[in-house]
Specification:
Strand order of the largest sheet: 3-2-1-4-5-6-13
CATH topology of the largest domain: Rossmann fold
Largest sheet: 7 strands, mixed
Shape: globular
CATH class of the largest domain: Alpha Beta
Number of domains: 2
Number of helices: 9
Radius of gyration: 19 Å
CATH superfamily of the largest domain: NAD(P)-binding Rossmann-like Domain
Number of strands: 13
Structural class: alpha/beta
Distance between the termini: 45 Å
CATH architecture of the largest domain: 3-Layer(aba) Sandwich
């Protein structure tokens, strides 16, 4: 049985990691957070240790902290000799990926990214619609968030990286995974860092995207990719993305840290 510690247990996304550990037969031996609102753990691992600083050496450390803390927490876990599983975005600066990968290689351990959209059943539908030359793609991702969102660390660009890192990173990763590198981009329009749209010229696709956290544009989450005129809903039928991600990681088939680099570089370039 593999042992786990989780840093950032009070985060919204943390329960998905906790459930994934449980579903895959792991043992969560420690949760770490400066916030003590972590009662959700009792439903999964009632004997789990709670602390504000990592005190154990598990097989894996799962990281669910705010984006700006990912680099430091990954580095701490790697230096301890633990494998790492990190929520998106793995880091906010692409050069940090090279640094962390080199350190992990020295330690002989792995750093795994959660890129669960690549595992969605909708991806197989998309692949069947892809043409070998040029595809036309429209990506619409509206995920309405209340006043709290921009007043929390998520609304602080220095801490979150901004809208594209907050909600766009998984979709940009999926687009690069499906259609190859981005040759150019443009048509970018912003509205108070809660809405943005633009165009990506990719190796095999011309992509128009629109991302927003505004309640004015959508009352419910909307995650639609229209490829060559056909709508594919990325929301439906994918409730176990983290469980499947952990399953693959434990089999040695997870997504390594370098696989997240292209989407991070793209956001860096768009945000300049």
């Amino acid at each position: 049985m593999k042992t786990f510690a989780l840093i950032g247990a009070a985060a919204y996304i943390a329960e998905r990691h906790i459930k994934a550990i449980k579903d895959n037969g792991g043992d969560l031996i420690e949760i770490v957070d400066v916030c003590d609102i972590v009662g959700v753990i009792d439903r999964y691992f009632p004997n789990c240790k709670y602390s504000t600083k990592l005190t154990t050496k598990p097989d894996y450390v799962s990281i669910c902290t705010p984006n700006y803390l990912h680099y430091d927490h990954i580095k701490q876990a790697v230096e301890l000799g633990c494998n790492v599983i990190c929520e998106k975005p793995v880091v906010l600066k692409s050069h940090q990926i090279d640094e962390l990968e080199a350190l992990a290689d020295l330690k002989g351990i792995s750093i795994n990214c959660i890129l669960q959209l690549r595992l969605s059943p909708a991806v197989e539908k998309i692949k069947r619609k892809i043409k070998p030359d040029l595809n036309t793609v429209e990506l619409t991702y509206f995920t309405p968030r209340g006043d709290w969102f921009n007043k929390s660390w998520k609304g602080d660009k220095e801490k979150s990286g901004g809208l594209l890192f907050n909600i766009g990173i998984h979709f940009f990763d999926l687009l690069i995974h499906l259609f190859g590198d981005v040759d150019d981009f443009g048509g970018i329009r912003w509205s108070a860092d809660i809405t943005t749209e633009g165009v990506l010229k990719m190796r095999t696709a011309l992509v128009r995207y629109a991302l927003s956290t505004s309640f004015e544009l959508a009352k419910e989450p909307t995650r639609i990719m229209k490829i060559n005129g056909i709508d594919i809903d990325l929301t439906k039928g994918f409730d176990n993305g983290h469980t499947l991600s952990y399953e693959k990681i434990l089999k040695g088939e997870g997504f390594a840290i370098h696989e997240a680099k292209a989407s991070i570089e793209l956001i860096e370039n768009i945000s300049k």
